[in-house]
Amino acid sequence: MERRTADRLLRARAQAIGGEVREDSVAAVLDRVLAVQAQDLPAAELGLRVRARGLTRDAVRRATDTERTAVRGWFMRGTLQLVPAADARWLLALLGPVHLALAARRLRELGLDESLCARSERLIADAVDGEGPLTRAQLTDRLTTLGVDPKGQSAFHLIRRAALTGRICHGPQRDGEATFVLLDDWLPATGPLPFTGAAAERELARRYRLAHGPCDALDFVHWSGLKTTTGRNAWAAVPDPGPEAPPAPADPDVRLLPAYDNYLVGYRGRELSVPAEHERLVWPGGGQIRATVLVDGLAVGTWSGGRRGAPVTVEPFPGAEPLPPAVAAGIARECADVARFSGGSDRPPTGDP
């Protein structure tokens, strides 16, 4: 098997989007991959679906809003991610200071000095403690009492700062909107952090290897947001799991991957996942990353819809060969499973997903 194809199959399997790997719950998916990109929450929910068997949106909401086994926050690269609640505190202790330091310049550009930031953090914590959970709009309204402009990005950056310092975290959704709660109330500390300092850096590198391999140190630096030297040192300290022979696919493994998915952003290069001639169809610019149709880990088109009952529309890449019947059948099954997921039924899909 050609090396590039073998690496792609291994990556797809590690990410639970290939090799017929599908987990059984939100917790199992996140235990395997550690994080699902979540700046677009509906896309994150579909990112869990594509890695699972028979998962529903209701099950995802239970995990985040009721069971509290998964939590949304600014972790790797300072981007919103869904991670296991059990890992949230050590990840925040490791990555929060990194992103606070990177955000300091932007805060100054917005005219938010240290005194105002400190007062804003106390106000936000007091508000969610006494009135929470509160939405971003509600917290923005409270921040205007300190003279913070309700328009623009100032309020957002102050709320994000309070989350990065460990005062607040994302709580339950309300009418489709995210809310914020006190971290210590929502995820009470149960003892010392399991990993700190260099040990936390090594654990992050270990988890990345398992969920993204084959990969290298610069892939890890790109994904984590750690400084290059820090990331390289952590990577070098973690044993290589060793080469693995990818399973030969019997039938094409077809997945409808959501926008902004880990598989598309978790590496510094794109050459294994998307043909170079079609990159602009997946990354059109403006920060967009479109939802893709994967066959054995390789993008063959894009798709849209699937939200609020909207039908799924698939667009194969132009100029490509007609999709084989087995791939077309796989796309039909995935479209049906997206509809089932969006409908909230707890019944598993019929047939092989």
Descriptive key words:
353 residues; alpha+beta; four-stranded antiparallel β-sheet; disordered C terminus; three-stranded antiparallel β-sheet
Please explain how this structure is put together.
By secondary structure, the protein is α+β, with helices and mostly antiparallel strands. Helix content is 47%, strand content 11%. It contains 15 helices and ten strands. The strands form three sheets. A four-stranded antiparallel β-sheet has the order 7-8-9-10, covered by helices on one side. Helix 10 (197-212) packs across helix 12. The radius of gyration is 21 Å and the shape is globular.
SSE order and pairing:
Elements: H1 3-14, H2 26-33, E1 36-37, H3 41-49, H4 57-66, E2 70-74, E3 80-84, H5 85-109, H6 114-131, E4 134-135, H7 136-143, H8 154-164, E5 168-170, E6 179-182, H9 183-186, H10 197-212, H11 217-224, H12 228-236, E7 254-257, H13 262-265, H14 279-282, E8 292-295, E9 298-304, E10 313-316, H15 325-343
Antiparallel strand pairs: 1-3, 2-3, 4-6, 5-6, 7-8, 8-9, 9-10
